[in-house]
Design a protein that fits this description.
Layout (H helix, E strand, L loop, with lengths): L3 H9 L16 H23 L4 H23 L7 H25 L5 H8 L2 H12 L7 H18 L10 H24 L7 H23 L8 H29 L1 H4 L6 H13 L6 H16 L6
Helix pairs in contact: 1-8, 1-10, 2-5, 2-10, 2-12, 3-4, 3-9, 3-10, 4-8, 4-9, 5-8, 5-12, 6-7, 6-8, 6-13, 7-13
Main location: membrane
Family: Belongs to the EamA transporter family.
Pfam families: EamA
């Protein structure tokens, strides 16, 4: 899953020609927005189901393989070529690790010990990390009182979700830390992309296709070192991995960039606020995960804080 930061920086890095009027016959952006929210919201459930039958690295590798296949098909249809230049590929290798290989693997490992609902809420902290990091790394992105307040409120929400007042009782610290680190990895990656690949002249489809390809290679190297070939192939977890890759990674990226180009990053980034709601509903309704009062209350506080961190000074 990408994040608020992803949508904003994708637009910032886009060539002016990428923002075009909506072509005739394209599905209304509101329906695509809803579809993207559902796809990313259900991704945490699919990760959980996938890890029921396969090792986390195998889930991540499968996700990347099928996601890359979708991007490759889209590039073939649009006759896009992979980017050129050793420097570009070097930067994409780092971006692939920070935006795909690392966070996807961390989420998969985290869901071995924490519910998919908690993983989805941890993902919602990404805009908070992004705002905190941008104050240090991006000189043009200066904080305001409202945004700093949002940062504080958001992390108060995180403490509420985790039940800090009761000493984090019953919480798996390792799994939760992995999910939070995965969420932190996204804004680090997008700040890196913004500083190194913005204005490269390559299309987003080309760059993203190459990035997923590189992340797939990274996982293809790592996975055999830490896992063995499965002796049996569980069908339902396998189908979950296919859906996670083809829909949650490949198709979702195409929908996201289409939304950014059509309605702008401010509207497109609002999808982030629906993801934890859908992830929580899916985890409770489909997987039967338990839900205490602090989880939805904390999630609302996190989202309120995240929304405030996106408020900009009026020109």
């Amino acid at each position: 899953m990408t994040t608020v930061t992803a949508s904003r920086d994708a637009a910032a890095a886009a060539p002016a020609s990428s923002v075009r009027p909506r072509p005739r016959g394209r599905l209304d952006w509101r329906l695509r927005f809803a579809a993207l929210s559902l796809i990313w919201g259900f991704s945490f459930l699919l990760i959980k189901v996938g890890t029921d039958g396969y090792a986390p690295f195998q889930v991540t590798l499968g996700r990347l393989v099928f996601g890359t296949a979708v991007l490759a098909a889209a590039m073939a249809v649009k006759r896009e070529r992979l980017p050129r230049g050793v420097r570009t590929w070097g930067h994409l290798t780092v971006a692939a690790f920070l935006l795909n290989a690392l966070p996807f693997s961390l989420f998969a490992y985290s869901e071995l010990t924490i519910p998919s609902t908690l993983a989805g809420i941890c993902n919602a902290t990404s805009p908070l990390w992004g705002m905190a990091l941008s104050m240090v790394a991006l000189s043009e992105d200066r904080p305001t009182r409202v945004r700093v307040a949002g940062l504080g409120i958001g992390f108060l929400g995180v403490l509420t979700v985790l039940g800090a007042w009761q000493g984090f009782h019953g919480l798996d610290a390792t799994g939760t830390t992995m999910a939070l680190l995965a969420s932190l990895s996204y804004p680090i990656g997008w700040i890196y992309v913004r500083r190194t690949l913005a204005g490269s002249g390559e299309s987003h489809l080309s760059l993203t296709g190459a990035q997923l390809l590189l992340a797939t290679v990274q996982l293809a190297v790592v996975t055999p070192l830490f896992t063995s070939v499965p002796t049996t192939f569980s069908l339902v977890p396998l189908l979950a991995i296919v859906a996670l890759g083809a829909l949650g990674t490949g198709l979702a990226v195409l929908i996201q960039y289409g939304l950014v180009a059509e309605v702008g990053p401010t509207t497109a980034q609002m999808v982030t606020y629906f993801i934890p709601v859908i992830a929580t509903a899916a985890g409770v309704a489909v997987l039967g995960e338990s839900l205490t009062w602090s989880t939805p209350v904390g999630a609302v506080i996190v989202l309120a804080g995240a929304a405030l961190t996106q408020v900009r000074r009026s020109a």
